[in-house]
Amino acid sequence: MRPIIIAECCQNHNGDKEILKGMIHAAAENGADYVKIQSIRSSDLTYRERFEEGETAADGTVKTIKRPYQPELERLAKLDLSLEQEAWFVEECWRAGVAPMTTAFTRSVVKDIKDLGYEAIKVASYDCASYPLLEDLKKDFSTIFVSTGATYDDEIAKAAEILRGTNFHLLHCVTIYPTPLEEVHIRRMSFLRKFTHQVGYSDHSKPSTTGLWASKIALALGASCIERHYTVLPADQTRDGVVSITPDMVRELREFADLSRYEQMEIIKRELPEWEQTLGQATRPLSHAEMLNRDYYRGRFASKVDGQPVYNWEE
């Protein structure tokens, strides 16, 4: 089965419809199977006091990251896409000959977007264990991609059980931005295969220094899909630019994905002799950096009910 390539626009469109249109068509022309956006609503951002100043121990160890609410709200507000713009995005993807996908960050957003025509839905790593959200998505989407970064093994097992009966993919992911090659732990895919044969990799490595090697090694070791953040702008013009690939890199990834596994491994062994550093461990404790990110991003957004936040893991 041909591996799936997902071009994740995230918010690299900077809230500009014309930039997003260019991203859609360039991804389609260079071999992406899906173009994905993020259905983020700045109004769903949650205020949590402990992240206003963060906390650092006397020895310099960060205990809580600093991410003040107001600057983040102002940044996100400039990037919001309306429902009308999302409906346009879906149609523009079809016009370009590529399938549309999005990530839903709250249960209230799921209700808004379920009838827009997305072919598939993505669950961010920090919501892999948000079981009520998964139940909602299971009702409205037949194809579901779930990232599993910063998620415990038992949480992944329960998520897979909930999603049984749907066409679901589990994506290995390391929530360090960017992820060094020695931290990508590609062997993790073998653990995820306990739950589904559709196991891919969501890659946050830094293309300017490590190219596409993490994604290529994942493909050679059987990844059914690769998700990469993607941009048509210079890397310094968007927040996620540093971990984003270009249209030319989408093409390179497509061409590599279409080679035989033997050809892929021959290229890897020849051009990256130290490739085995990427294998890592199938099961391991989460690193300090991953735990810090889990602490902040899990609960970053919530549905608002009577003015109060209802998190994705709450009934």
Automatic annotation (TrEMBL):
GO process annotations (BP): carbohydrate biosynthetic process
GO molecular function, one term: N-acylneuraminate-9-phosphate synthase activity
Domain PseI/NeuA/B-like: 23-255
Residue intervals passing through the bilayer: none
PANTHER family registered for this protein in UniProt: N-ACETYLNEURAMINATE SYNTHASE, SIALIC ACID SYNTHASE
Name of the protein this chain belongs to: Sialic acid synthase SpsE
